[in-house]
Structure formats: C-alpha cells, structure tokens
Write a structure and sequence with these properties.
With 106 residues, the chain is mainly beta. The protein has a single domain, classed as Distorted Sandwich (Protein Yojf, Chain: A). The chain has one helix at residues 6-17; strands at 2-3, 21-29, 36-52, 58-66, 71-78, 86-89, 92-96, 100-105. An eight-stranded antiparallel β-sheet has the order 1-6-7-8-2-3-4-5.
C-alpha cells in the first residue's frame, strides 16, 4: 500500500510500530547525493511526532529504545507535499525522506 498523506503515515506508525520491536535500516545521503551512509539496528519505537520545520518541510521525530535500554531519537525530514511518502506491506514500512530513507521491519 502506498502512503500518500502525513496523517496516514502517522496512523501506520502508531498502530503498527509504537511499542513494538523492529529492525531499522536508515540510509542518509548528503545534498550532493554522492556520500551515502547506512545504519542498521534493532529498537523499540516509543513515540512518533511530526512537525513543520524552517525549510517548509516536515520533521518526523521517532523516539526509540535500543537493546541496551537507552533512549535515542531519530530525526528525518519528509517532504511537505503529500504524495509518495512511503509504502507499507507485510509488516515492512518504507519512508522516503528528502535526504534519507527509513525502513522498519517487524
């Protein structure tokens, strides 16, 4: 299922992933698109928030708890335009940010 609105994205995150343990694959690249950095880790999603930022885009803030019990935050900028924000199927959520991609897998 393609995700087309911010509300739909938040609903999926809250109903399917908040409180659940998941595998996270976070890929980030610089503005030139040359350097790419990928991080893979397991964590429990504690909470989700979405807010406007100063660049007229959206900030998605995920609060996580890692396997050591430490709380950490993952900030990802999303397009303000509500189209092609991600996809969700079979317990796998892919989010398409402005300079990053995040995959959550239960």
């Amino acid at each position: 299922m393609d995700i087309q609105t911010h509300a739909e994205l938040i609903r999926i995150l809250e109903s399917e992933f908040v409180g659940a343990q998941a595998q996270f694959i976070f890929t980030q690249w610089d503005t030139d698109g040359e350097d790419e950095e990928e991080s893979t880790f397991a964590a429990r999603l504690l909470k989700v928030s979405l807010s406007d930022n100063e660049f007229e885009e959206k900030d998605l803030l995920l609060t996580l708890e890692n396997e050591a019990g430490e709380e950490l935050e993952l900030l990802m900028e999303l397009p303000s335009v509500e189209e092609d924000l991600g996809s969700f199927a079979d317990g796998r959520l892919s989010l398409y940010g402005t300079e990053a991609e995040l995959v959550l897998q239960k």
